[in-house]
Amino acid sequence: MVTRRPLRLLQLVSTLNVGGAEQIVLNLAERVNARQFETHVCSLSRIGKLSLQPAFEKLGVPLLALDSQHFYSLKTLRTVEKYIRTQKIDLIHTHLTDADIVGRVLGRYLKIPVLSTMHNMPHNYARQRVDRYWLERLTARYWATHLVAVSPNIREMYVSEWHIPPRKISAINNSVQMESFLAVGEGVLAEREFPGPVITNVARFNPQKAQHILLAAAALVIEKVPTAHFLMVGKGHLEKPLRQQAQDLGIADNVIFTGVRHDIPHVLAQSDIFALSSLWEGVP
User: Fold this and answer.
1) What is the distance between the alpha carbons of residues 40 and 58, in angstroms, rounded to a whole number?
2) Is 259 exposed, middle or buried (0-12, 13-18, 19+ CB in 10 A)?
3) Cα 239 to the chain's mean position, in Å?
4) C or N terminus of the chain, fewer CB within 10 Å?
């Protein structure tokens, strides 16, 4: 009897920075049936200090990290193509714009099926450079084998706005590993790093997450509750202007920028309120 080898799956992602899409890639690598799939991971961007690389290495997943300056450069395409051929990859699963486009182009060229997860609503892509937007949109419609939307509502948006054929896109709700959260006792910890009440935001510092609106609201809260503290958990290119905004509002002593934290259940256990200030999300 011939035993069929597991399908070799390449999880192709634009970055391995700490973020929602990247965390999903990690969750898939952790939970996929190893008897059916052999997982490989490729990041198109150079891996920095604050990345999920250690978590992937702990899993023993083969990991290729590129330092691609332009996601559609021939060098990037050839490097990923070589890896696909060498490792005899059977299926490509892409996440985020750069990886979506590279994966679909190579899938078309190498005649390998490509699955793409659409992590956000369509107008999120429309905010990118026009060439990136149209490459994402056209390759999604014509070159992806199948698409996965992270919620039924997001699926309907792609069908109506991008004219994706309904048969070509499925809705699979994102999952969250609950074990670490359920291990935390009920209520707010009596001993915590910061005095309360504590209002916490966990997100990248970028325009979508709109922390500037949260800080404006924080000033109103702190005026009435001087002991309130706001935890800003994450990193991003807007951190400097957000810090300056807190200074200008006179609330810098009450706003704590923690950087990236890998113990979010512990952080939330010290919090009285979680605040999501995003202007839009695939799954809020």
Assistant:
1) 14
2) exposed
3) 18
4) N
In whole angstroms, how far apart are CA 58 and each of 54, 178, 243? 6, 20, 35
Q: For residues 69 and 59, what is the distance between their CA atoms, to the nearest angstrom?
A: 28
Question: Nearest Cα to 133, choosing from 161, 156, 113, 114?
Answer: 161
- Do residues 71 and 14 make contact, with C-beta atoms less than 8 angstroms apart? yes
Q: Provide the whole-model pTM.
A: 0.81
- Residue closest to 22 by CA, chosen among 87, 117, 146, 134: 117
Residues 70-115 pLDDT 10s: 666 888 899 999 999 999 999 999 999 999 999 999 999 999 999 9
- Residues found in the chain: 284
pLDDT digits (tens, 9 = 90+) for 211-226: 999 999 999 999 999 9
Inter-axis angle of helices 211-224 and 239-248, nearest 10? 30
